[in-house]
Q: What sequence folds into this?
């Protein structure tokens, strides 16, 4: 565990209040919360019958999917750099 | 919108069944679902009083946070490649 100072940030996501404790600054945590809120609203617009739990789970599913795609791109880029350095 | 064939995959995440429709193959979608399920269990272990909706929202918050960190790393790497190419 790190011993850096933790920040506590209160944010609203999809009508509920959350206190997020972490290493990130308040500005960053608010940005993350607003992205989650936007994504939940977006999925709600596409499928209005989903309850809040399902909306949040599907938001997490979408984001993990985006993460894995970006990770593939990142690894490709890293390989490209390593190949260049080998020349 | 793309016209590629969509796959439908049924997955279990934190005790509920979801049908995920997307461009990804079944194997990939199951991997994504298992990552979300693991994260929800992890957050539940750290804070057992959270209800499922809050757990799901905090899982989404964590995944978006991880995504943004990786995006920063990706952008740094891209900048590094561009600088090398300018030499």
A:
């Amino acid at each position: 565990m790190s011993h850096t100072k933790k920040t506590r940030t209160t944010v609203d996501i999809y009508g509920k209040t959350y206190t997020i404790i972490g290493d990130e600054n308040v500005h960053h945590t608010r940005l993350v919360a607003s992205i989650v809120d936007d994504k939940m609203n977006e999925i709600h617009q596409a499928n209005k019958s989903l309850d809040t739990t399902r909306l949040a789970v599907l938001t997490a599913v979408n984001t993990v999917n985006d993460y894995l795609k970006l990770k593939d791109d990142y690894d490709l880029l890293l390989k490209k750099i390593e190949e260049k350095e080998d020349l």
